[in-house]
Every structure is written in C-alpha cells, then in structure tokens.
Write a structure and sequence with these properties.
Layout (H helix, E strand, L loop, with lengths): L2 H9 L6 H7 L11 E4 L1 H7 L3 H11 L6 E7 L2 E6 L1 H15 L13 E5 L14 H16 L3 E5 L8 H12 L2 H25 L2 H14 L3 H24 L18 H9 L3 E4 L2 E4 L9 E4 L7 H16 L3 E7 L3 H13 L8 E6 L2 E3 L14 H19 L6 H17 L8 E3 L1 H5 L6 H17 L14 H22 L4 H20 L7 H25 L8
Parallel strand pairs: 4-5, 4-9, 9-10, 11-12
Antiparallel strand pairs: 1-3, 2-3, 6-7, 7-8
The chain binds arginine.
The site of arginine has 9 residues, from α12 and β9.
Length: about 550
Amino acid sequence: MGYKKYIAEKLNLTSVSVEDVASFIEVPPQLDLGDYALPCFKLSKLLKKSPVIIAEDLAKTFVSDEVISSCTATGGYLNFKVNRDGFAFSVLNEVLSLSDKYGSDSIGNGKTICIDYSSINIAKPFHIGHLSTTVIGSALCKIFRFLGYKVVGINHLGDYGTQFGKLIVAFKKWSSFEAVERDRLKELTRIYVKFHDEAKLNPALDDEARHYFKLIEDGDKESNELFTLFKRITLEEVEKIYKLLNVTFDSYAGESFYNDKMDVIVDELREKGLLKTSDGASIVDLDEYGMPPCLILKSDGSSLYATRDIAAATYRKKTYDFDKCLYVVAYQQNLHFKQFFKVIELMGKDWAKDLVHVAYGMVSLEDGAMSTRAGKVVLLEDVIAKTIEKAYKVIEEKNPNLPDKDRTARAVGTGAVIFGALCNNKIKDIVFSYDRVLSFEGETCPYVQYTVARCNSVLNKCTDEFSNFTVENMTADEYAVISEIARFKEVVKNAGDKYEPSLVTRYALDLATAFNKFYINCKIAVDDKKLRAFRLAITKSVKTTLTNALTLLGIETVEQM
Ligand code: ARG
C-alpha cells in the first residue's frame, strides 16, 4: 500500500529521500492521535534540529487533501489521519486480491539467510527442550521466505563425538537390531543410560568406547554401519514430529559433515598467528575480549564443538553466500557463540558481523519436570500426543457432530503447542501448561483458530458476492478491524528484523480480538445489501489475514470447530 510513500512524497523533504522517510513512518498502536505517525527523532540527526521543532515545522506547511485528512504535531511526532473510507477500501481490496500473498514483501529479494535450528543430537531423545528452537527457527524460515529472502534451513545434527563409541559398545553388549528397529529412540536411550551406569563400575568400558569411536573416524565398515543405523533411527523418529509441526529443512549437514573441513581452518588459524598451546591443547586466546579461550584442538589432536562451528560457518558462507546466518540456540550457549564469532572476526572475515545468535529461554512443564534433567526427560512426542488427545476430548464435549474430528484435534493440539511456545518474547523462560494452551479463552491458539472458523461459518451462510463492496460511514468497530488488518505487513517485517515470531502470534490475537468485538457489535448478515457486502469483505479479509499469520507460525486452520 502506498500510504507511507504518499505521505513521504507530500512532506517533500529535500535532504532526506522519500524511501527513507517512508521507512520511518509507523502505524501507531493506539489510533486516537492518528492512523500513521512519523517519529521525528529519526530525522533530527539529518536535519540537525530537535524532533519537536521538526514536527511543528512540518505540520505548519502540510496541506491536507482527499487522501490525508489531517497532519498534527504532538511532542516529537507528526500524526496523520487518513481519509478512512478510502483507506478501508484500499486495505480490503489489497487483501482480497493478494489472498495468501497478503502481508508478503519483496524486501528480501536477492538476499540469502541461513537458519540453523532444531539441530538435534543423534541417538538422544527429542525432548521438550528442543521445542523452542524447532518452532522459532521454522517460523523464522517461513517469515523470511514471505519477505522474499532465499532461506536455507539447516539442521546442524549433533552426530559426532565419543558418545557414538559408547553406543556401539552398549549395542554390542545389551541390544540387537530387532530391539533397535522395534523400540527405536527409546532403545537407544535405554542402552546409552545403561552404558553410563555400567561404566561407573567398570571404567574399562570407556576405553572400549574410545576405541570404537576411533574406528568410526578411521572409516571401519562395521562401526560406520552401526553409526548410520543410529542416525537413521533418530531421523525417522524426529521426522514424524517435524511433519506434525510443519517443519522442513534444506540441509541436514551436521557436525560430522565437517570432519574433512577442519584441517584448513586449523591451518589458517595457525598461519594467522591466532593459535596458542595451553596444556597441550590448541586455543585462541580471547582474554583481551573478556572471554575464556576458545578451544580448537584437544591435546590428543581431536576437534571440538567450536572447531566444527567455525568450519560450518565458513562452509555456509562459501556455499550459500549468505547475507545473514542465524543460530536459533538456547541462551545457555551464549558464550560459545560469542567466542566463535569473535574467532571468525579475528581471522579477518568481514562476514563475522552477519552471524547472529538468536537466543531463547527454557521450557519446563508445570508439574516441575525439567526438560534436561537426566532420567526425567519429557519427550516432545508425548507432549504433542497428550495435547492432541486433550483437544479431541474437548471437541467430543463441545461439538460431538463435527466431521473429521481427528484432523481437527491434530490441528488444534499441535497448533496449541506451537502457539504456546511462540506466544511470548523468545528470551523468556516458559512453563508449559496443557490446560492453558488448550483454553478457548485468553491468549491461545484455539481462540484464534475458533475465530477463523467463525469467519468461515459467516461466509458459508452468506454466499453473495462481496468483491464489489463499497465503504460508507464506517463504525469504530469496523475501522478497528481494518486498521488491524492493515498492520500485518509491518508486523511481519518487524518479526523478521527482530527475529521475533511472537510478534506474529501477538498480532493474530489482536486481530482476532478486534474481529470478535466487531462480530458481537455489528450484525454481518443484514438486509442492506451494500452494508452486508462491506461486512462480508471484512470477514473474508480477517480470515485470510489470520490464516496467513498462522501459516507463518506453522499452524493449520480448521474450517469448523
Ligand atoms: N546440537 C546442539 C545442542 O543440542 C545444538 C547445535 C546448535 N547449532 C550450532 N551450529 N552450534 O546443544
């Protein structure tokens, strides 16, 4: 929509470009003062005047017209009121014509973003601690694609380390191919835990594990076949969850992928004089930057997590030539990312500035079961299954005649889990509650999905055409819905800029609330044909916009609920 550009052109500032001025203009959260606002502090450096003076000067010379009905200065802000009927008409028209593209943008065209997310560990349970990285990362992929970027979603698998030697030993001693095929990840976890218990009594097991790990590295056939089996079983299991959550990846290049890509990195570090030896290990000293050293090689010459990350970042830059590379990883790893980003900077790579750690908080369950405590892990699979089951029960209670209850329960149950994880600012720790995420009241997915179903039932009842709608004498409730709809594009852009999908979640709640208020206060199926067409156009646009918002989060909508 051209309003921002229109206003920027009318302001006609000689020393700032129309594009820049347009990009500074915002849709304020409260519409009492105006429909658009220009925060003049953004201009004060360029114009060398205080925001208050800028706003007053610009307001004096502004001439209103049939598009912009007024322009006033308040504090350092310049507030514009638009001709609301015209505004409403153009917003609804845009949604109706763009449909599932409404809210998308081309700002990302020609740019590439790599997003490292989920990044699970092979042969370890997929527990609730992986929920956030998986759904935040997936939402960011969808948001950036919607903004026109080329996105490369990467699952940086944890598929390297001595634990695989341990697993081979444990498998040979206490398991079988049949048991692994049958009990899958549960069997792998069982023998892994058993290994640790037994190794406490019999440390020789650890030596044996090291031996097998070395065999994997040396390309031994049998050991690699077992390793491949563990990897396949894990991926097959997590694939089921990814499918439920609408999560996909473009690459599964994990830690082991970089086995042959680290020597050159170590050489480069050495050539650039960055490597130091400390107790036999090779490190990059980061004392000067207030951080502990970054470990590159252990004293036995083997590589570390950071070494692989440096190799991975280098590989991604070379392969994808990214403009940004995001790492959606819990804040517990803050130091790791700071350290290896710094090492890349010290290596003289100017793209070090394009590496971003998108940190998020922890998830725990209401009953106190922490996500990571050994022996008491809560499997994500179980959480989703339980939520779907509970959703099914609610449907049975409230709407027993609903067709296709299974699909609806699946959409509502998984949607509730995703929405629950994306509802708050990502850095906050979350306590997951089944009852809360499934409630129809408050800030929940069922509330938004129900609103979509409500729009749908209105649209199904009134089959008349609304594409030739007109706008006259809007009510405040109608206008409130339309101005929410108009905000969507900006919300998506902000969510991308801030790496914060919760802005989209919040937005969906706000739009649903505005629509429900309108629905209660304004009858839609009125006799007046003109008014009915307008209100149906609003309803259709809300359905489209909410569906687009939920789709960005990886959540499905349902026709009926
Ligand atoms: N597998 C790691 C973990 O579970 C996360 C990997 C994150 N990505 C990365 N490039 N370091 O802790």
